[in-house]
């Protein structure tokens, strides 16, 4: 794909765009330290020449909906390196707010559901059932909120020992072991997160491209 596209030309083929969005999501989930490469959302991708250690390489760049841009290593994304502590911290944050997100989802359907119990998808506008819906963070992702929280706590360079659980055999998720830190994050999330209801079937690329769109019917956390 990289070699098919001329340098600095918008990669506008739908299949290629969707594949790169999926690759970027994989990068964010497994590799990124700090704010996500996706940021506020994907507008398009291009290939560019990169000067690395005195040599030239060709790589992908993502241009976001706010016109900011960054490169990312498709080689690392494909390799799927083991999740580092930063990714594990995001997982702990996700686990800590999951009960509130589920309660917010149930309240949203009770309040906004039609006679058939369906609500409109925030991206497509199509009616969706409870089982077909999920709560999505927009415009800031959960990863970005977790990073902002880390900076507020003074953990920008590293997560202190004793904050999240250590990887163990058969451990399915990382959680907070410092309950005070968990309480602080859930309070931070409750104050700073903006949520919307989307269809699970919506292409991930479309979600990313519309992440900065206005949330007309936000999901409230009580």
Brief summary of the model shown:
With 222 residues, the protein is of the alpha+beta class. The chain is built from six helices and seven strands; from the N terminus they run αβββααβββααβα.
Could you explain the architecture of this structure?
- The model has no long low-confidence stretch (mean pLDDT 85).
- It is flat, with a radius of gyration of 19 Å.
- It is built from six helices and seven strands, in the order H-E-E-E-H-H-E-E-E-H-H-E-H.
- The termini are far apart.
- Strands 1-2-3 form a three-stranded antiparallel sheet. The chain has a two-stranded antiparallel ribbon with strand order 4-5. A two-stranded antiparallel sheet has the order 6-7.
- Helix content is 37%, strand content 18%.
- The relative contact order is 0.17.
- Strand 4 and strand 5 form a beta hairpin.
- It is an alpha+beta fold and 222 residues long.
